[in-house]
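anyone seen this seq b4? input:
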Amino acid sequence: MLKAVILLRRRPDLSQEEFSMHFRVHMRPLVVDLPGVSRIVVSEWVAGPGGKPAYDGMAEFWFEDIEAVQTLVQSEEAREIESRMAEFVDMEAYEPFLTVEHEVMFDPVTREPTKA
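predicted toks r here
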């Protein structure tokens, strides 16, 4: 399983509330039917050291394999989303990267490692 993580900073002319509205409400209909994607999670900044976030939001997209990633990247839907992101995202600070997760499993009571 692969995961794309995208760090997003809002455009300087937008408030956090305006960013949130675009991020969670306006983009939702566009992302729910993305080809090749098996799961999507969006997260918004709440708090951090110094009070000012380096990023205002993060989007995570899960894929079964690299072919699914390529399907999305080559899709018309991905181009539409990227074009709409410019309405609320500082595209100079746009940070996408692809990851492989390694889950750390442990017993919540004993804190001893467990097998996946």
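The mean pLDDT is 91. Residues 2-100 form a domain with the Alpha-Beta Plaits fold (CATH 3.30.70.100). kinda curious what u guys think
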